[in-house]
Amino acid sequence: MQPTDIKDPEYFHKVVDCQYACPAHTPVPEYIRLISQEKYTEAYMINWESNVFPGVLGRTCDRPCEPACRRGRIEEEPVAICRLKRVAADNKGEVKPFMPQGPFSFNGKKIALVGGGPASLTVARDLAPLGYEIHLFDEQFKGGGFMRSQIPSFRLPESVLDEEVNYILDLGIHTHFNHFVHSLEELLSQEYDAVFVGTGAPKGRDLPDLPGRNEGAKNIHIGINWLANVAFEHTTNIGKKVIVLGGGNTAMDCCRTSRRLGGESVKVVVRSPYTEMKASPWEKEDAMHEDIPIVDNHVPIEFVVEDGVLKGMNFEKVTPIIENGKRKLVPTGEPLVFIEADDVLIAIGQENSFPWIERSAGIDFDKWGMPVVDTLTHATSHPKVFFGGDAAWGPKNVITAVAHGHQAAISIDLFCRNLPLTQRPSPFVNLVSQKMGLHEWAYESDVVNDVRYTVAQADKKITLSNRKTEVELGFTKHEGCKEAERCLNCDIQTVFVEDKCIECDACVDICPTTCITFIDNAEEDALRQLLNMPALNTSQDLYVSAPLKTKRVMVKDEDVCLHCGLCAERCPTSAWDMHKFLYKVTKAG
Amino acid sequence: MTFIKPKFRHPDLPKNKLGYTLSYYEGALSTLCAGCGHDSISAAIIQSAFEMNIEPHKLAKLSGIGCSSKTPTYFLGNSHGFNSVHGRMPSVATGANMANKELLYLGVSGDGDTASIGMGQFVHVIRRNLKMIYIVMNNGCYGLTKGQDSATADNGSISKTGIVNQFQAIDLCGLAIELGATFVAQSFSGDKKQLIPLIKAAMAHNGFAFINVISPCVTFNNNKGSTKSYDFVRDHLEATGTFDFVPEMEEITTNYESGERHAIKLHDGSFLQFNKLDSDWDPLDRFSAMKAVHQAREKNEIITGLLYLNQVAMDLHELVSTCDRPLNTLKKEDLCPGNGALATINAGLR
Prior knowledge:
The complex is a heterodimer of chains A (589) and B (350).
Chain A: H1 9-15, H2 17-21, H3 28-36, H4 40-51, H5 54-60, H6 65-68, H7 71-74, H8 81-91, E1 110-114, H9 118-127, E2 133-137, H10 146-149, H11 158-169, E3 174-176, H12 184-189, E4 194-197, E5 203-204, E6 220-222, H13 223-231, E7 241-245, H14 249-260, E8 265-269, H15 281-289, E9 294-295, E10 298-306, E11 309-323, E12 326-331, E13 337-340, E14 343-346, E15 350-351, E16 385-387, H16 390-393, H17 398-416, E17 428-433, E18 435-437, E19 440-441, H18 460-465, H19 477-484, E20 492-496, H20 506-510, E21 516-519, H21 524-530, E22 542-544, E23 553-557, H22 566-570, E24 576-584
Parallel strand pairs in A: 1-2, 1-4, 2-3, 4-16, 6-14, 7-8, 7-14, 8-9
Antiparallel strand pairs in A: 5-15, 10-11, 11-12, 11-13, 17-24, 18-19, 20-24, 21-23, 22-23
Chain B: H1 37-51, E1 59-63, H2 67-70, E2 80-83, H3 89-99, E3 104-110, H4 111-115, H5 119-128, E4 132-138, E5 141-142, E6 148-149, H6 172-178, E7 183-188, H7 192-204, E8 208-214, H8 230-236, E9 237-239, E10 241-246, E11 261-265, E12 271-276, H9 286-298, E13 302-309, H10 316-320, H11 332-335, H12 339-349
Parallel strand pairs in B: 1-2, 1-3, 3-4, 4-8, 7-8, 9-13
Antiparallel strand pairs in B: 5-6, 7-13, 10-12, 11-12
Helix pairs in contact in B: 1-7, 3-5, 6-9
């Protein structure tokens, strides 16, 4: 194998599994370390700079970082990264002084943002301090988009959302609330230098052809619309018996909200097996904790309506079988199952909808009715129009929308400065030794054995009686510190300098997880098998040195390295050293 | 702060026939200098015991005084141990072995502990062919007292302070072969590929197994001009062959008749398989082994590998016809045969 080029920032970036997995590439270990030092304000600001909504995401993020966490490969449970973010948000001090301070001198460019969700707000935050005049349009009377309309208050208190939305609006954003943009062409005819479309995926899927759909329409609701009506207090109650169709996170929010609006017997009914449901495991657990059974392998057949009143639904029982490598749901042949219901919520997915974009506006759409958007620059066939968030490539999540916002802001800035959109700024990277002396490192290098701490929840009696009472209490400061200490500091990199190595094997002998081997070089596949512990996780890289004096090479399997620093500790010549690696995605400007 | 070895190990760590992973054979975290050759030898011992499926409670590790003699703390944490008086490890090993021949005895000593203060003990334990493994971690200096030349420092070797050694070195392997040791090997701490099969073969040997391991003192004897530094040893290594230890149960498929491929069947039915690099040398012939050692010294080379093996000689238990059972299992009836037996003996003397 060729020697690893550690000058390429992406090599060490990939070693920081959590940060690499995060769409916005938040420097996770950096802020977790600050939490363990009780520096909550600093931890919050690292998050704010990167993911814009730490308080919101610390409660509701889809957490792509946690399945990636190295700790999950070494013991069972990853670090509770998401809930640690909330610890920073809950305990922070005054943060406004650390944010950009307006008024900013106008640079002469006006930008329109359509939709007031996380993608648009991120664009606003990145561009406003650069002097852009930002105009934000949203049909609701407050910003936040789906963070407000779809995430129930018992998961995300309105005050937290308001606070973080206002940090952005306070940068001098011109808001046009209660304003539905009906025409892109009309918007383009006004004097905007660029338009950003962050309108999300606002259309909930329906089951229009299911018998009884029209007859029972009064008690059959589209999940996301119903959640929005609850959030804006147009809907305040629901029947005692509720069926929620669907297995995603929206279904979980629907069923739990139903329990709070009068639903006594609420059931989630899903076509696929339980294990294949799209909802996050923790959301399923929370729903079941609130006495909501999840009935899987049931396909909806019809709405049962008698005398114009919805009585329930009939379902066909199916069983999953694997045929030609594909999973199929095959009817079991049992009689239809009738489940009673006063109301049915359909939460089987959502899709994009752009009725307000004229097909003559100059934006190419593909055969599925989706805009053609460049995955790097977020540009469309219309030079002034950029897309991001769910509007660009369909429904994802808040953190992805934020990541899109950052990239779109970069493109808009480049566009307004007449620079090529492909000229993306390099990431900010820093690599600095942590050695302070004998047995002394600038980071807490010992690996704690604690298992993951659980977040306490408020009493069910209280939370079910008020939809605005937050269920999760969050970690206490003490729990936050303990959980933060579980972090393995994957950003403290093991850096190897070949010409200092005397091949004494001290690192090989001390490494607790047998990551290091000195070996004759070979091709990667062969090398992976020949190491002291075969490196079978091919998603993790091998760190290979240039040939040493004995013609062998040092090979380190990054897979289960604990970043404990013992290799550097036991190295007599400092050929190994621990360096803190900081990687920040550069923002617009 | 670091210096606590984390509890976590590689999740896929293999298990040996006893169901233990390598970590079960580990000891406490070493407090020797970073980069000390002794730590590599400790790691080789851990690996050998793991691969030999040794039940930790069936092994006793014994040592004297010195950096080398600290190492038993750093390996086989679940085995018996005795850290004895300076140079007196062979006596303690002899006593323990006489009392219970069911354990495997692993003696660890250094060049000071063996070639200076313990020389008398060393030569006598060889003479008696006590069944044990005797590893010398040889760094040519007194590392624990700031690096003075030891009795194994080569003539002409330059110390860290720049002083040239005027005295002749004691060649422990040559001495051991001369005195009739039945298993003599020499190796280098930085070459585990060779060291591990040698330790495993020594564990299988029925008699005194001596391994002299050159183990650089990274703090006091790793300078230019030293003949026991990492660089010097690597440049002057002359292996007698490449070695592989093959347990008895494994089928040997290689054809040994052709070329220079050899296999020696060991006492317990296992094999030491090797590829001879020096055609003049025959490890089963004492004169040939002596000659190889002398020639290497002449040529300023460090000869490594198995140098000499004698499987014919009887070990101490056989020589003095001891009882098979550990002494602590002998009951009064075993030790005191009673009046009848005494009367018979007395009658025989009339």
